[in-house]
Records
---
Amino acid sequence: MKVVKRRRLKKGYKVLFLFLLAVLLVLYFKPKEIETKKTVIKKEEKVKESKKEYDLSLVMIGDALIHSTVYEDALKEDGSYDFKPMLKEIKPLVKDYDLKYYNQETILGGSELGLSNYPQFNSPYEVGDAFVDAGFNLVSLATNHTMDKREQGVLNSLAYWKKQKKVVTAGSYSSFEERDQKRIYEKNGIRYAFFSYTTWNNGLTPPAGKEYLNNEYNEELVKNDIERVRDEVDVILVAMHWGTEYSLDVSSEQQQIASYLASLGVDIIIGCHPHVIEPIEYIGKTLVIYSLGNFISDQVGIDRKTGLMASVTIHKEEEEGKKEITLKDLKTELLYTYSNNYKKRNFVVYPYTQLTEELLPNYRSYYERYKQVLQSRNQEIPVKGWEE
């Protein structure tokens, strides 16, 4: 019996010893494990602190081509004009974007110069009022109609836009000093520059020595402009008035200019002038929207009444002195300018997703057609439809 008791005691001591040893090992290694976890957490927090991210959202629409029927529809009894009802369906769609771009195709020379229709347009200032009211704050002014009312029309236009303190314009200036001034803007921690050029002037070249009135494209001018700001901004936006009118395809000149701009480090190219939509593609990291088409006009034909709204988010990441810019969340949506075809009244721009057979018969077939146009150079271009 005594032998058995001794064995039990020895076994108990052994178990106790192993238990104590285990406790000691836990106490010895646990602080190191905790310290290791703390170190990992601190490193992760340090990475988070050193890594900063910024987003800037941009939405773009095409030409404000103001025919006489459009401004007559906006005429009020007191002689003023109100274009805001024409944008009522678009205003809520763009309100949450940081930058909102459109192309002012016709010059805003004001009623005092006499309003006019094709081929040499002049539009009332109230056109700009409607777009500003809708939140648009990035406006391209270099077009083939910029000189339609000669120098005075340009000066009137510039005087109007300079009163719009929250709006950035490009492409038309009152002097060489103003044109060559370095303009760098910042929003949401992202610095950007905005330029506008036209390859067309309809034979109305600015007077010699006053080329600043309308920014006509040439490689040397563009190169100098971009190199002046490239190292000081995160993003460069260029509006191009180019291409072949009424062509749904891209011209060789557009391709050549787009490749050249991409080589200079332009991030987004926004195309207008054809008055119809054209494909979208990437050249390297450069987003090229060849033509947004008409936003509002009274041109004849569904092609010319269909425009595009495109949006993208500019994303910046900064970490340990390094910067990376990416374009994400590219989206597109087709737009349609409705009017009463018999009386040329009640102009309203609708997104295709809100169309009915009454507004545009066979609208779904048109959607499929223009979707193919947009995706003809890149099948990954998303086009918003009814399934969303």
Note: Residues 54-374 form a domain with the Purple Acid Phosphatase; chain A, domain 2 fold (CATH 3.60.21.10).
---
Amino acid sequence: MSSAFIILQQMLVLFGMMLVGYFCYKINWIDDHTYGKLSKIVVNILNPLLVIDGVLGKNTGEDLNKLAINFGMMILYFIFLIIISIPVVKILRTEKKNLELYRLMMIFSNVGFMGIPVISALYGSGVIIYIVFYMLGYNFLLYTYGIILARRSAQRNSQRSEKENGENNTVSFKDNIKSIMNPGVVAGTFAIVLFVMNIQVAAPVASFIKYLSQCVVPMSMILIGASMAQHELKTIFNEMKMYWFLLIRLVIIPIAVALLVRQLPIDSQILGVFILMLAMPVGSIVVLVAMEQGADSTCCTKGSVVSTLLSIITIPIVAMFLP
């Protein structure tokens, strides 16, 4: 069975979960209030537990060289996306109010919610330890730099009303530090300690964490579907600039990188994880973080929904270029 076909099957499963959320919202089983509360649970409880679960029962193993290479690739992954996001938003001539949000969507893809089921379906559960490194880096960056970007966007959008009302709601440095100290960062730190020191937790605790972390993928996909249902479909799919952005994000960048790195003398699975991570759609948690910080989550919703739908086709295409 080809890599592209295996991934296509997994993408269809995730799409089905989105449809569940879409129809639950339409029949009022999920309303705006419920959506907001569930979002807080996913961001502050379930997603951090998913990071911890990723290292439980894992150890550094015998081949430290592979883990070190994978760690280096993870660092390269985020540095590359942070840097490339700057010229991309300029090339697209993104509106000022959405600059930070487009950069958020460029940097933070669905490495955990979609990365784990898609990549493990292709390579098996043995590569999850590689994905965990990306999740740890992702969460540290999301709950630090990501929150700063979201808050900047919220502040930019609120400046007009502040000027009109004569208010000054600038967020202090102390408030920024407080926002960084959150469940995501705490969970990431704890996960690194568990992994590096090879600490074993009690079986009931491990089961508790595993059961809750297994809710992340379906809950996130359901919330994406519910988020999509909150808007008229024509408003979700009517922004042409978003399609140009996603063409760059989902197709051009991962394929170009795949052609560049596939000849490197690095384990094919490590390279495969790196390339597929670049091909993942906009992270659903970006929508939740934008909403939590008071930014315009509609822009992120468009990016998350449209990219997730397009990724059903684009990820299998990128998989054709895997080493």
Note: Residues 166-171 have pLDDT under 50 and may be disordered.
---
Amino acid sequence: MASSSDNPARPGPGLRLCALDEIPDPGGKGFRFREVERLFAGFVIRKGDLIVGYVDSCPHAGWPLATFGDRYLTKDANHILCTGHGALFRLDGLGVTIPCVGERLARWPIEVRDGEVFTA
């Protein structure tokens, strides 16, 4: 299987994703990109000073993590939730519950400049 970095739908560096204030604090926002028949899905998590992007794919099953809009975080905002099977990931992407213990979410490099979120 090709990695997400080989996906022609994955946007290159410098693409504006949104204004930072469009991402709730704490919260997340998902992004989808299509190139012909290929799709790339990513999301950005924000909690205080932490702003991080991940490829929207469960390392265990390969499906998107949020099945309900942009609800990537648990209610207490301390973990990223895979709604497909309930696995939890720390905000640094490390899986902490079965079936994803020790697995990591794939990073999607992003950066914030002047209150705007861009791909990096």
Note: The domain at 4-119 is CATH 2.102.10.10 (Rieske Iron-sulfur Protein).
---
Amino acid sequence: MNRRNFLMLSGAAGGSCLIPAAIARRIRDVCLGNSQPLILAPERFSFDLHAEECFGKYTLHLGDPNEEPDYPTLREFVEDKGFSPDDRRSLRDYLINWRGYDVPSEGRTSPVIDKLVTMLDDPIDGYERSHWMDWDFEMHDSPMARAYSYLLDLPLDDGENPGDFDLGSLSFIEGDRPGSNLTYVEADSLAAIASLQHRLQHRLNALQTGARIVIA
């Protein structure tokens, strides 16, 4: 996996562009070349999107960028992989397929299955944790991946031609290098952050809910 999709953010001198000329000019004049964004935060919002700066670009997080992962239990992990934690035959298949164990055939006592049963309600560890972090967490459950899913599902693009003011872009990234599963959205400037906030407010007014962007 290594996909990048871009959303250009711009304002128009006239017409019905999502970012009107007056606001686009203010964003351009305040943000470009300065260290502070012009974020027109909504009066009402349901949650925060955190924008964390790194080398002049901003990675978006839905939730605290530093939150600890909420690791599933081994029982949940086994079920998610299509095995039954309440069936010894299924647990034997799990150990063979996921841990590479040479487990005795059904009908014989197996201490390794007995030990697995005692661990089912503990948080995952070892190989299972590494797999979950590399796949489930980085692709779906991390604050970055949640921001990706949230923004990808929103109608942020009005479908019109680019406007007169280039205000930056958002990059929707799935895998930033070979072997990586990191899934995130990156804004290339403070102007892009400010423009995104305006678009969020514009699109979500009718829903009476939305996000406030906070520079982390």
Note: The chain has two domains: 3-68+136-215, 74-122.
